[in-house]
Amino acid sequence: MTGRPEAKIVAIGSVAILSSLLMTVCSAPLEKRSAHSVNCSRIGFPNIPCAVTPYTEILDLSHNQMTRIQQQYFKTLSKLKRLILSFNKIAAIEPGAFANNSELQHLDLSNNSLHDIAILPFNHLKSLTYLDISNNLYDTIYLGVEIKELKKLETLMLGTPSVSFLKVGSLSMLRGLPLQKVHLITQDLEEYEPGTLTALENLRDLILDFQIQDQYGIIHPLKKLNLSTLSLNHITLDDRITINLFENVLRSTIVEMHLSNINIDSIGKWDIEIISSQQINFVINGSMYYIPCGVSEKLINLKYLDVSFNLLQEFSFIPKCSNPFPGLTSLVLNDNKFSHLRQLSVMTFQMRNLTRLIATSNSLQLPGEGMCSWSRSLRHINFSHNKLLANVFSCLPSSLESVDLSYNAISTVPNLEKMSNLREIILTGNAISFLPEFAAGHPVRVLSIDRNAINTIDVDLLRSMNQIQLKLGNNPFRCSCAIQSVIDYIEHSHIEIIDWPADYRCASPLNIQGQVIKDLKFSTVECNIPLFVGVLLACIALVVALCVILCIKYKVTWYIHTLWLWVNAKRHPDDLMEGNFEYHAFISYSERDSDWVKNKMLPQLETNNPPFHICIHERDFRPGKSIIANIIDCISKSYKTIFVLSKSFVQSEWCHYELFFAHNQILDKKKDSLILLLLEPIPAKSIPDRFCKLRKLMNRKTYLEWPQGEFQQNFFWKRLKAILNTNFQPQCLTPQMVLVAISPIIRNKGTSSIP
């Protein structure tokens, strides 16, 4: 039919769907959209007042405790345009309650306790375009004369489940009103008087929500109305009524039809003789399990068919029909029992004009590999919320321009070169780990691959997609330095990334989990490997240089060299048994102090009765052995080691060796063997850094000091001989390391400087 909009016959799954849509529009709590919109829903009004102003235009008082609308409630609201009073307990409305609301356009009184709608005071509502008085407590539909004052009324919702009959006078007061939409609710009608609906002469949209025994009495007159939309809820369709319904609709001006909560009680003998010349769209949602060929082959001008929420399967939908729905362009199969994708393709093969196929929320799978037999005209498919795997791509037709495979079980996306017409692909909610690659020049312009398993993004691959609208959010991104280049590219290029940056967050590492990727800050060194290596090498070089400087300053190399000599000498020990000594003492002294040692010290010790066996390097070192080995050997074979300390001693390299080895001998043998003999005062500053052990020993322990007086010198020799006598053990000695101090004044262990 030329110049007319496409007709739609819509059967929605349950009355709740339509009701919920109406509730959304009419009675849902409003948000405070502006200063002129007030939401006082669920506050306990009128016991708790609602703060309104004279400028209030939208007022929501739903879900409160009102039982009666009083005159003063809305007296000051002359600017009110939308008033929602649903879900209260309103049983009466005082006359003049809306006297000052002449600008009111939308009034919702649904789901209250009104008993008589004939006496409602509507005479002042000259601007009202929408009125909902459905689901109250009246059991008879009879509208009073005041409703004729609603000269601008376009939408009317009325009726309750208590209404059991409709008569001609029920709606007669609506004649002449500019109504465009009426929603009529009753229970299973016991009586319907023919001609009741003829009062709705200018109606475009009619919703009949009831069940009657003789649907013919209602269906047949529909073709006389100038309807564009018809909704029939809670009806039972047998073969006769179905044929009657289709033929009357096809003969009428109806362009849209809703069948809600239908009960099909037939065997499918629907032989339709009328073939409409106008384009028709069907949506059937109920308990249907197949469509007879007599229907599918006769509906040659059917363009849109929605059979969601039924019991359809591949083998029962249009069984063995030679030319089903020859003019069909869009087919919706949501929430049915389809399970085999290849069989579904065979089912659509005969639909030569089919361009769009939607089959979401089924159980579609594709066993094995292989081609499928789709209609060659197919351009758009939607198989979301099924059980498809990656092999689904081998089944898709190359003619597709858009494909929605969201919320399946796809893990990889193969090469899509064969799909040369594909412009949009939606893969949301699968298990894909990597971005798919597209050949240069591929026409894809929209790619949704959010909510998958992608943790890394190749920035080079991203650059190749600069003409594609990408949706990658809510993936488990691993936030390492590599992602910095991705951030930089997205921020400084013209690529279109949907939901950036809010839906792009880190999943790992744990310390930044949940952080928005855009807010990440990586240092230049951290993300630039050559620079990082350079800085690392520079740091290593600095540390090495610092170590070298410290080694030079503190003679570390000397200690290492000396320790190596000591360890090397210990590898070839003499056959001296532990605890057997050849000497009472080994004397360590500098060459400048040799006269004092030879002329004073040795005569005192070696002429003693019995004589002490003394070891000195000038006399007792063994020829052929290294100096270091001789030093270690003599120290090991001596009961004590006497260090003659003087200014020249601390300047001698070999004296330092002897002190070092003697100190290590103490640690090795775990016994005291050192005797410090201070021949002359030594300024603390004159002791080199390498003599740190000597400095510590003299600061921590006591030592012998050479006196100047002869009497004191005699006492000095006696005390030294007593220490060297192995049979003489003073009571003050302990097994621990002790440095004995014998002088005119005994030095305290806490001495902090050298005199």
From TrEMBL:
<keyword id="KW-0677">Repeat</keyword>
<dbReference type="InterPro" id="IPR032675">
    <property type="entry name" value="LRR_dom_sf"/>
</dbReference>
<feature type="disulfide bond">
    <location>
        <begin position="372"/>
        <end position="395"/>
    </location>
</feature>
<dbReference type="GO" id="GO:0042497">
    <property type="term" value="F:triacyl lipopeptide binding"/>
</dbReference>
<dbReference type="InterPro" id="IPR035897">
    <property type="entry name" value="Toll_tir_struct_dom_sf"/>
</dbReference>
<dbReference type="GO" id="GO:0005886">
    <property type="term" value="C:plasma membrane"/>
</dbReference>
<comment type="function">
    <text>Cooperates with LY96 to mediate the innate immune response to bacterial lipoproteins and other microbial cell wall components. Cooperates with TLR1 or TLR6 to mediate the innate immune response to bacterial lipoproteins or lipopeptides. Acts via MYD88 and TRAF6, leading to NF-kappa-B activation, cytokine secretion and the inflammatory response.</text>
</comment>
<feature type="disulfide bond">
    <location>
        <begin position="293"/>
        <end position="321"/>
    </location>
</feature>
<keyword id="KW-0732">Signal</keyword>
<keyword id="KW-1133">Transmembrane helix</keyword>
<dbReference type="InterPro" id="IPR000157">
    <property type="entry name" value="TIR_dom"/>
</dbReference>
<keyword id="KW-0472">Membrane</keyword>
<dbReference type="GO" id="GO:0006954">
    <property type="term" value="P:inflammatory response"/>
</dbReference>
<dbReference type="Pfam" id="PF13855">
    <property type="entry name" value="LRR_8"/>
</dbReference>
<dbReference type="InterPro" id="IPR000483">
    <property type="entry name" value="Cys-rich_flank_reg_C"/>
</dbReference>
<dbReference type="GO" id="GO:0002224">
    <property type="term" value="P:toll-like receptor signaling pathway"/>
</dbReference>
<protein>
    <recommendedName>
        <fullName>Toll-like receptor 2</fullName>
    </recommendedName>
</protein>
<dbReference type="InterPro" id="IPR003591">
    <property type="entry name" value="Leu-rich_rpt_typical-subtyp"/>
</dbReference>
<dbReference type="GO" id="GO:0045087">
    <property type="term" value="P:innate immune response"/>
</dbReference>
<dbReference type="GO" id="GO:0004888">
    <property type="term" value="F:transmembrane signaling receptor activity"/>
</dbReference>
<dbReference type="Pfam" id="PF01582">
    <property type="entry name" value="TIR"/>
</dbReference>
<keyword id="KW-0520">NAD</keyword>
<dbReference type="InterPro" id="IPR001611">
    <property type="entry name" value="Leu-rich_rpt"/>
</dbReference>
<keyword id="KW-1015">Disulfide bond</keyword>
<dbReference type="InterPro" id="IPR017241">
    <property type="entry name" value="Toll-like_receptor"/>
</dbReference>
<feature type="transmembrane region" description="Helical">
    <location>
        <begin position="531"/>
        <end position="552"/>
    </location>
</feature>
<feature type="domain" description="TIR">
    <location>
        <begin position="581"/>
        <end position="724"/>
    </location>
</feature>
<keyword id="KW-0675">Receptor</keyword>
<keyword id="KW-0433">Leucine-rich repeat</keyword>
<keyword id="KW-0399">Innate immunity</keyword>
<feature type="signal peptide">
    <location>
        <begin position="1"/>
        <end position="27"/>
    </location>
</feature>
<comment type="similarity">
    <text>Belongs to the Toll-like receptor family.</text>
</comment>
<dbReference type="GO" id="GO:0043235">
    <property type="term" value="C:receptor complex"/>
</dbReference>
<keyword id="KW-0812">Transmembrane</keyword>
<keyword id="KW-0325">Glycoprotein</keyword>
<keyword id="KW-0391">Immunity</keyword>
<keyword id="KW-0395">Inflammatory response</keyword>
